[in-house]
Every structure is written in C-alpha cells, then in structure tokens.
C-alpha cells in the first residue's frame, strides 16, 4: 500500500530566539527573484533610464512554433568591454557606475586595493574591510558614463515573474517577456519604463539556466551574456551580480569571442574585475555577492592583511575567520528571518551525482508513514503524480488515508512546490489543514493551530489556536506542545506564563521535538520565568537543539553559532562559529531564488542537459558550496568532452596544459571542496594520485593513502575500502 509523506511546519515565533541571543536588525523586505534597490524619487514621473544604454542594443529573439526562443541571425552589437560596479554617491545612495578596463591593464588589481586597507582588531564589521571605498576607491578607473541607481521593477513585472515561477516559461509568458524587452526606447508609462531591462535579464537567464532551452548554439549563449551586460549597464542588480559570477568562473566577454583581435583578459584580471563588482554589491547587502566575497575571503582568493607584516608570514586562519564570519553571519541572519516570515523551513535533499552513479535507484527517504522514493522536488513528473494522488484521496473522505492526504496537501500549498508548479497559498493550505484536523489528524491540528496563532491564511484567533493545539497535545503530538509553549513563553495572545511554557517545552522535548531546546536555552540565557541565569546550561540546550535536529534546523545552528562567536557559556571560537553560520547562509532552499541553484542544476541533470547543469553547479561552487564543487567536478569527469566543446565557457583556455582539461578543472574543484573537509572530495583527490589522471597528478601512492585515510576518518566508506 502506498503511504503518505508528511512533515511538520515546525517553526513558530522562533525569531524570538534569534533576537534574544544577539541583537539583529529587521531584514529588508524581500523582493521577487529580480532583486533591486529602491530609489527615493522626488519626481512622480521618473525618467526612463534607456538613454544610458542607447549605444548598446539588445540582441533580439524570435519565438518558434514549439515555444522555444531563438536569437535572430543578425550580429549582436558588441559590448564595449567595460563593466559596471556599485558605489555610494555623496548622499550615501548606491549607484551603478560604468568604467572601461584595458584588457591588459592590471593597475586595478584587487589584491593591491585590499592589501592597502586596514582592518579593525575586533573585526566587528567585515564590510568596512571589503567595501568599495566611498571617497573615490576607483579613481584609477576611467568613468565613461554617468552613475545611476539600481532599477526597480514595476508591480506588473513582479506579478509576471510570479506567474513564470508558478507556470514555467510557457510560450505565452515568453512572448510577453519579449514584448516588454522590445520597449527599451518606447515605454510610455513611467511606472514600467525600466521593465525592459528586467525582461532582458529574465530572457538571458532562460537561455543560460533553463534546462533544454533552444537553441543550443554558441551564438545564443554569447547573445545572452551580451544582453546581461546591457541590463547591468542599465542598473539591474541581479544582472550585475551574475556577470561578476561568470567572471569568477572564467567565462569570456562576448567581444573576446566575436573579435579575435581583442586580447582577452587573463584569469587573474578577470577574477579581480569580478571581486571588485562583488565587493561593491556585497556592501549594498546583495546575498549572492556577500556569499561570494565571504568564500573568496575564506578560500584565500581575496587576501586579508596578516598580523605579522613579514613578507613570508603564514596566513593567519584566525584573521581570515574574523573577516569572513561577519559576512556569513549577515547572510545567515537574513535567512533565519526569511524562514520565520515564511512560517517554516523546508528541508531539501541535495543529491551527490556520484551517489546516483553508484546507486541510480537510491537516494530516497522514508517518512513517518513509510512512503519512500526520490524527493519529489527532484522529479517534476513524480511531483505532479504525487500531487494528483493526494488530490484523488482527498476527494474520498471514506479513504482511510484521507486525513493524511489533506494534511500533505496543506503542506504542499503552505510551502509551495516548484516541481509540481504549486505556488505558496496559505489560504488554501489553511483549508486543507482544517479539514485534516477535523478528521482527527494530530499533525494537521497542530499545524492549523500554528496558522491561527499567526494569522497566516486565516484571521488570527489565539483562543481557537489553543483549542487545536490542545486537541493535538491530547494525542501526544510534540509540535502541539511546542506551539503551546511558544504562546505562553511570549505572551502572544495569552497571559504570559514562562513557567507553564517551560513545562510544555519539556513535554515537546520528551516526545522528540528537539527545537524546543532553543527556548529552554533562551530561558537560561536571560533568566526568564524565575530560571536562574546559567550560560553553560543555555549553551547545552542550544547544542541539544542542533544535535536533536541533525544539524537541519537553521534557527538552532544560528543560535549555537552566536554562542560560540560571542563566547557565551563556552570559550569564544570564531573557527567553531563560522561553519555554523555558513551552513545557514548556504541553505539550498533559500538560495533557490538565485538565477542558479543546486535544485535547478539537478533538474537540468535529470533532463540530460549537462551543459546547464554544469553551469549551475559551477556558479554555486563559487559561493563555497561543497555539493556544487563536487557535482561540477563529477560532470567534468564523466561528461567533460561534451562540456569542453562549448567555446563560450572558456574551459579550453583555462589551463596551461592542454591535456585532460576537464580533469584539470575537476581536480581543482575537488581540491576546493577538500579544503572544506568534504570527504568525497578528499577521496577523489587521493584517487588522482592513486590511479594517476594523465597530465594532472603524478603517481604517488603515499599521498593517495594519506588522503584516503583522512576521508575515511571523516566517514567516507569507499575511502576506507581503498585504504
């Protein structure tokens, strides 16, 4: 008998814990996938920004009969070879400025800029060190155009993006994007005057990142990057960031590919240009850029000043940590706020491609009801089939699994499911939860109580929330006890009673709900409810929250990170705190809103689009994600020739030794992941010396054995066998 998947929404008012441990600023409102900075306009009719890029036309598209998009056959206007970056103006507002950079001019070396800056001893704010200087930090760059603020998409365009997220790139929606993109110089409504740039960006992303998008030829990809340059010059923040990320992975400029007389930038110059742009965007609180700068600092790509001024002074890992950690902390803090705002955290199973090679039918999981199989987010067809299966059961109240089906549908609509093309709908989720609750499902009763307590999808009604929490608690539902504890702990709609709240949290913990440890930790941290302040006991509970959730609770990880970084109840340790903040900052579900992601990469891989799968994984790798690094390396190992043939990727010229270019790149990526203590990556670098990869590693059994042993100590079973 097929059984049903279920999970708990499992997060209620948990922002109280984050703010009780460390003071945090309220997060800025989150935009739709195209992130923009809002300009404080004094005019009711803002001037369209199209004049800024009149010399750069957008390479045009046409829609084929099957809905695919093709670049028309005229040559795209070559870009100037310049790039845009971010600076503050005299009023403190962020602006986009353009500059020319000679393809052989190294005077703008990022290393020299960073090494000349001073870092405060306590490293309270890494942005002071990594920021673009506000008083002319780029005076050596020749400015060739006026600066402008980041563009802001209209409400109509944001609504169009929502439809694309829900329905996919249908011919109708692609046609609308193309129509908007063509209004660069003809927009009449000031409110939508800048939408052309966002449409250009969206179409470029479709060509670069959507699986099996046609056409699959060099020019289509070159045009997409060219058009991203146009959008970036106009002031689209997302386009600026993605272009910088493409620079990091060594993708050539369009004009370098179209004009052989142009001397290309060296890899060092390209990375320096990327780091300049990313540090400016990071200072403007761009998530993707901040993660890239944080990893660049952690990996040593972006140098930090050493405490010892000697030329040969070793890299001080503590100094590096103190600079990188505030960046990861900021991203982690923002992600925790997003989780709370969205009502919960959706776990995402990230697949290692090497595991699929060993066990193509594995990688599944079993839930409370024993329903096994691949995560439906990984397989669009399976996700749609499961959705219809749940709906079929939901239409038959006599089915014994009716309550569980209704509960599962509530979860799907509460969180949304991209693979099944289901958008977030808290109102519909509430209806499903209520019907499942009335049918006696304890988890649905607890979840519906959570919605009532927070006013999500229904009018806020705390007395009714108590009714549903108590119904579930009588069935020993752990999350219900947790919900009751939160209400009484915060006094949110009920008289505050911390003593009673702590009793509920103890009940929840006894039933296996480990996140309640976070509230007990807060009580011991602050002395709530007459509990004596005990920092060691507080730390113990925060640690238990992490251990009890197998490190899957972002809130628990964040709290523990703060304790380690501030030295509360435990010796202060930046090196211990950083991986905790980093894990929250790189949460794959929260990063799925970026143009590239692990989730979209796997979708491309499943559909046989190894080129775009590689591009996704390779870009995620530059954020310091081990899964991205290992999976990009895996694709180079097993599909390297089919990836290498694409000239626009620039792989053919990426290494001096032309033998085994894919394996050269794969080894570099495995080495990056190995530096992050990834056991598979350490084993693979050992394999390179064990059975030598020609032109990459010499035969060295001792080095191979050392790496196998280290990987085995970290839990890699295959490495243990190799030993």
From TrEMBL:
Compositionally skewed regions (Basic and acidic residues) per UniProt: 28-42
Assigned keywords, A-Z: Signal
Matching SMART domains: SEL1
Sequence segments annotated as region (Disordered): 28-53
SUPFAM superfamilies assigned: HCP-like
InterPro entries xref list: Sel1-like, Sel1_AlgK, TPR-like_helical_dom_sf
Signal peptide positions (record): 1-20
Xref: Pfam families: Sel1 (PF08238)
The keyword Metal-binding is assigned to this record: no
Family: Belongs to the sel-1 family.
PANTHER family for the chain: SEL-1-LIKE PROTEIN, SEL1L ADAPTOR SUBUNIT OF ERAD E3 UBIQUITIN LIGASE
Protein name: Uncharacterized protein
Source organism of this protein record: Phytophthora palmivora
């Amino acid at each position: 008998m097929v059984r049903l998947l279920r999970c708990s929404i499992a997060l209620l008012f948990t922002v109280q814990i984050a703010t009780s441990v460390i003071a945090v600023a309220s997060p800025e409102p989150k935009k739709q996938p195209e992130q923009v900075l809002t300009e404080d306009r004094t005019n009711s009719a803002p001037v369209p920004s199209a004049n800024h890029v009149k010399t750069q036309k957008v390479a045009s598209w046409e829609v084929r009969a099957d809905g695919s998009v093709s670049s028309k056959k005229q040559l795209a206007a070559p870009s100037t070879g310049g790039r845009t970056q971010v600076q503050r103006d005299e009023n403190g507002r962020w602006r986009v400025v353009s500059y020319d950079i000679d393809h052989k001019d190294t005077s703008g070396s990022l290393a020299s800029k960073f090494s000349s800056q001073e870092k405060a001893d306590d490293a309270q704010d890494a942005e002071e060190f990594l920021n673009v200087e506000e008083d002319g930090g780029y005076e050596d760059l020749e400015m060739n155009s006026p600066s402008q603020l980041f563009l802001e998409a209209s409400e109509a365009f944001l609504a169009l993006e929502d439809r694309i997220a829900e329905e996919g790139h249908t011919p109708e929606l692609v046609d609308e994007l193309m129509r908007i993109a063509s209004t660069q110089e003809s927009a009449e409504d000031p409110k939508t005057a800048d939408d052309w740039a966002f449409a250009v960006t969206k179409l470029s992303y479709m060509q670069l990142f959507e699986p099996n998008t046609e056409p699959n030829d060099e020019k289509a990809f070159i045009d997409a990057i060219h058009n991203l340059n146009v959008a970036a010059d106009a002031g689209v923040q997302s386009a600026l960031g993605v272009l910088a990320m493409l620079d990091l992975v060594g993708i050539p400029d369009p004009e370098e590919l179209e004009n052989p007389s142009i001397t290309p930038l060296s890899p060092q110059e390209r990375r320096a240009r990327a780091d300049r742009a990313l540090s400016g965007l990071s200072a403007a609180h761009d998530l993707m850029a901040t993660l890239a700068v944080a990893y660049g600092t952690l990996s040593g790509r972006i140098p930090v000043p050493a405490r010892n001024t000697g030329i040969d002074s070793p890299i001080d890992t503590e100094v590096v940590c103190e600079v990188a950690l505030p960046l990861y902390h900021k991203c982690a803090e923002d992600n925790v706020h997003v989780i709370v705002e969205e009502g919960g955290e959706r776990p995402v199973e990230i697949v290692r491609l090497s595991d699929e090679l060993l066990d193509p039918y594995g990688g599944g999981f079993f839930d409370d009801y024993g329903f096994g199989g691949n995560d439906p987010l990984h397989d669009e067809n399976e996700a749609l089939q499961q959705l219809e299966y749940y709906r079929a059961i939901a239409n038959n109240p006599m089915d014994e699994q009716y309550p569980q089906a209704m509960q599962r549908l509530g979860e799907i609509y509460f969180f949304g499911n991209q693979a099944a093309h289901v958008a977030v709908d808290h109102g519909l989720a509430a209806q499903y939860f209520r019907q499942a609750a009335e049918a006696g499902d304890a988890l649905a009763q607890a979840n519906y109580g959570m919605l009532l307590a927070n006013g999500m999808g229904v009018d806020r009604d705390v007395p009714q929330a108590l009714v549903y929490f108590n119904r579930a608690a009588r069935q020993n539902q752990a999350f219900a006890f947790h919900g009751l504890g939160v209400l009484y702990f915060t006094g949110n709609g009920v008289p505050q009673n911390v003593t009673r709240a702590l009793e509920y949290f103890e009940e929840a913990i006894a039933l296996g709900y480990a996140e309640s440890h976070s509230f007990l930790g807060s009580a011991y941290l602050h002395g709530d409810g007459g509990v004596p302040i005990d920092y060691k006991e507080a730390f113990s509970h925060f640690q238990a929250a992490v251990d009890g959730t197998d490190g899957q609770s972002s809130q628990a990880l964040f709290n523990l990170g703060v304790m380690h970084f501030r030295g509360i109840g435990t010796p202060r340790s930046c090196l211990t705190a950083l991986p905790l903040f980093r894990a929250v900052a790189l949460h794959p579900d929260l990063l799925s809103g970026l143009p590239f992601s692990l989730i979209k990469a796997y979708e491309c891989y499943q559909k046989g689009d190894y080129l775009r799968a590689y591009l996704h994984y390779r870009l995620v790798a530059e954020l310091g994600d081990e899964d991205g690094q290992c999976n990009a390396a895996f694709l180079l190992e097993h599909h390297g020739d089919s990836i290498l043939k694409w000239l626009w990727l620039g792989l053919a010229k990426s290494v001096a030794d032309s033998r085994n270019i894919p394996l050269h790149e794969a080894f570099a990526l495995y080495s990056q992941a190995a530096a992050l203590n990834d056991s598979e990556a350490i084993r693979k670098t050992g394999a390179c010396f064990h059975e030598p990869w020609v032109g990459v590693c010499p035969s060295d059994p001792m080095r191979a054995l050392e790496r196998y042993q280290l990987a085995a100590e970290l839990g890699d079973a295959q490495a243990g066998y190799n030993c």
